[in-house]
Design goal:
alpha+beta; 21% helix; 30 strands
């Protein structure tokens, strides 16, 4: 359950219909179908025979199935949780079993291992608490039209570029899902580059990273680039992403751009990648992260069934408690549920996916119903399916409820979701306390598809919104590189005064969003340019 920095850790491709309307109503026949579907009364989670207590139920299920996004070749992406520190003998043990050690964080190791060898690993270390599938991260972009970026820099931004000498002396890291077409695009030779997906090449996979690099280069053409490629072109496991982020932190970069989000990690800033960003930001580096494009395909609500119909309440008394979404063309759809409390002592939720047939009847297509013992596993359920165009229903059922909590539902790849709730739709690592999280502006407010907070611990996100300036690469994937490039110019022209001055300049160069969807507001490019005078900081502007 990890990352294909999927489409920067899914290609979260959402149709242009997002920008046409802030609301969507399903056809009446589909609404009628929601009233007719009854919640299953029993569930038999898939389990392995002869299972080890160390293997989480989710992993036991995974080992019996092929789960898109968690496998590389015949290896399964796993995270191994230990009682204390990760033992030194883990890496050689994995290698003897034919596996690959990716990285570690605190008491957790990330690795890839053939399914048939996982049981052997579980018995090799008494210190293992559990082994479970990795979380995944996806790319944050709307559809890319072509390899070349169609962008005309505003005059004021060109003036800033000249005064800051094009960002000369600044080193920028880009963590992405591939850099296909990078050389053909005429982009500068990177200062360093590394791939974290075995068997892959840096200048292959997705074009997504190339698009991000092209935007940064057009804004800060003299800045040096360091490239880290993860995943298989769209999705990546958290182990690869963590390893890439740790490597970038050793490369002397002042900025790191991550146009990706994950939705099966904690959304309160405590996810491993969030913690890494907080740690590295304390040393002076600035991590710029896309907020995500999930505002219209996210729902959030309390875990409750007050009408006793078997489904978690949606608050829609006029219809059944099922979410409705539309797929406008055949594509892969990723459904992720995560809920609080994150320690797993709250609830056990299951997800059921139905297709609405031409006669208005609903047909069960798939279910995510892994048994989740109290406190034993992360509170997550996922479904990934390639679906034809049509209407679909999603029901959420609780089989255990110990403590009140809140559930988030993300349907990546859908054109619409009803009901949709934009609040709380920012994914990790955009939820990191120290991340400079970037959304997309539409006029003086957030674009309808652009994800926004608050985070699960109540913090406002994103920090800033950016108007779209690229004609054929849109979404928050394109917004983050714009801020990264501008920040590099400000840092170069600032003479290296650091993060506090940079953040103050961006804050004072933004106008409050009409919908209060960003902490600082919508970036005003003219105001950013006014922050420098002849290549030096304008102290009157910064300290007013």
């Amino acid at each position: 359950m990890m990352l294909r920095l999927v489409g920067c850790i899914f290609l979260l491709l959402m149709g242009n219909a997002w920008a046409q309307s802030t609301s969507w109503t399903a056809p009446e026949a589909v609404i009628r179908a929601t009233r007719e579907v009854e919640a299953p009364t029993t569930s038999v989670p898939r389990r392995l025979t002869g299972e080890s207590k160390a293997l989480s139920p989710a992993l036991q299920e995974l080992l019996q199935q092929t789960y898109t996004g968690t496998r590389s070749g015949d290896l399964v992406a796993i995270r191994i949780v230990f009682k204390a520190n990760v033992p030194e003998g883990l890496q050689p043990t994995l290698e003897r079993l034919g596996g690959v050690f990716e990285t570690s964080w605190v008491n957790t190791a990330y690795a890839r291992l053939a399914a048939r060898q996982v049981q052997l690993l579980a018995h090799a270390f008494e210190e293992i608490v559990r082994i479970e599938p990795q979380a995944f991260v996806d790319a944050q972009s709307l559809p890319v039209v072509s390899q070349s970026i169609g962008m005309a820099l505003p005059a004021k931004l060109r003036a800033l570029q000249q005064r800051a000498h094009g960002g000369r002396g600044i080193r920028i890291g880009i963590l992405d899902f591939g850099f296909s077409g990078y050389v053909a695009a005429g982009l500068p030779t990177p200062l360093n580059a590394r791939v974290f997906s075995p068997g892959a090449q840096v200048f292959a996979g997705s074009e997504h990273g190339t698009q991000c690099a092209a935007l940064i280069h057009q804004i800060a053409p003299e800045a040096s680039l360091v490239l880290a490629s993860v995943g298989d072109g769209g999705k990546a496991g958290e182990g690869q992403v963590l390893a890439a982020a740790q490597w970038l932190a050793t490369q002397g970069v002042q900025f790191v751009n991550i146009s990706a989000s994950g939705y099966v990690s904690a959304l309160d800033g405590s996810a491993p990648l969030d913690q890494l960003i907080n740690q590295q930001s304390a040393t002076g580096s600035i991590w710029v992260v896309a907020a995500g494009n999930q505002a219209l395909t996210h729902w959030r609500g309390a875990i409750a069934d007050t009408n006793h119909n078997g489904w978690v309440d949606l608050g829609l008394p006029e219809r059944g408690d099922l979410l409705v979404f539309e797929v406008t063309q055949p594509r892969s759809i990723s459904i992720a549920l995560n809920w609080t409390p994150w320690d797993g002592h709250g609830a056990d939720l299951d997800a059921f996916l139905y297709a609405v047939q031409s006669d208005g009847k609903a047909e069960l297509l798939a279910q995510a119903d892994t048994l989740q013992p109290s406190g034993a596993v992360r509170p997550v359920e996922t479904l990934t399916r390639t679906l034809p165009a049509g209407f679909y229903l999603l029901g959420i059922r609780t089989t255990r409820l110990e403590h009140p909590g809140v559930v988030n539902v993300f349907v990546s790849g859908a054109a619409h979701l009803s009901p949709a709730l934009s609040t709380g739709s920012v994914g990790s690592p955009g939820t990191a306390q120290a991340a400079l999280t970037v959304g997309v502006a539409e006029g003086h407010a957030s674009a309808v598809f652009s994800s926004r907070g608050p985070t699960e611990d109540g913090r406002s996100k994103p920090e800033i919104l950016v108007p779209s300036i690229a004609s054929n690469f849109v979404g928050t994937s394109a917004a983050a590189p714009v801020i990264t490039g501008i920040a590099a110019l400000l840092q170069a022209g600032d003479g290296g005064h650091g993060r506090a001055h940079l953040e103050r300049t961006l804050r004072q160069s933004a106008q409050a969003a009409q919908d209060a969807s960003a902490v600082w507001g919508v970036l005003d490019l003219d105001a950013v340019q006014a922050g420098l005078q002849n290549g030096k900081p304008n102290s009157a502007k910064w300290h007013q």
